[in-house]
Amino acid sequence: MIDFNNLIDFTSNTQVFYGTANTINWETWSKPKNCKFVYIVTIGSGGGGGAGRQSTSNSAGGGAGGGGGAITCGFFQACVLPETLYVQVGPGGIGGIGNTAQANGGTGANGSISYVSVSPNTGSAYIILQSGNTGAIGGGGGTLTGAVGGVGESSYLVQSIFSQMGQVTSVNGTTGGNGTDNTTNGGSITLSKLTSGGAGGGGVSAGSSVSNGGNINGAGIVPTLTGLGGTAPAAGYTGGSAPAGFQPRVPGFTYTARDPIIFTGGAGAGGAASISGNVYASSGGKGAIGSGGGGGGGMNFSTGSLGRSGDGGRGGDGLVIITAF
Prior knowledge:
The protein has one domain. It is 0% helix and 20% strand. The two termini are 25 Å apart. The strands form 5 sheets. Strands 1-16-3-5-9 form a 5-stranded antiparallel beta sheet, with no helix packed on it. A 4-stranded antiparallel beta sheet has the order 2-6-7-8, with no helix packed on it. By secondary structure, the protein is mainly β.
């Protein structure tokens, strides 16, 4: 006689936890009755893109893209986990702020780690799983010559006590694109993981020669996101924002969406030159989940006019998915 009672019930119970803007708080997950296994996916948030530099009759580099979040997954027997887990999803880093003074652009804020713990505490004695060891780094603010892209979140190498009860895999986040001067376009991003850094912003020379923002180079189901072109606009130009990162249909509370999970950083903004009048350079694109914001464009304006360099794009919030079956 076949004993069907010991076969796995493949009816899954999946709950998805999202970031809540700039707030860090704890949410709870309750273990369903009679489940045998629990699979957890944690994605860290992306770093903010750097803002472009603002100069008067001088070169101004674009801001760099923010780094991408790491992804860590864990497979556990349900019996080794408590009835309630606590989830904290890391918010994305704020993009660097452009300015009207003759100064370097603001650096993007760092991303944050996403946690699943046995108590609302991020101490190592409480953590079941976390996205990585260090959050993604924000992109550097533009200087006279450019900026360095933010480093991606490091993988989860130092595992906590409770994580040793399961099978854990982890991958690093990716670095953002460099901000550049007028001689080359902002650094583009070639996809290699499920999250990405943001592309770098373009700059402008003292002679008003401009470069374009970097691209997110598409692959497979991901389209190419083209950075904004550099411009020497007329007075009153208010810039805009580079394309936001690619994000498929995001799983809902009941996980009805079936698109593959892959997210990208925002594209970069191009440099801008103001001959006369008030001009605002373009901002970097916002990063999708776990991905970096794009770099803002550098700004050069002549004596007698005003200009504001482009802001960096905000990094995407993290994500946690818990499936019981």
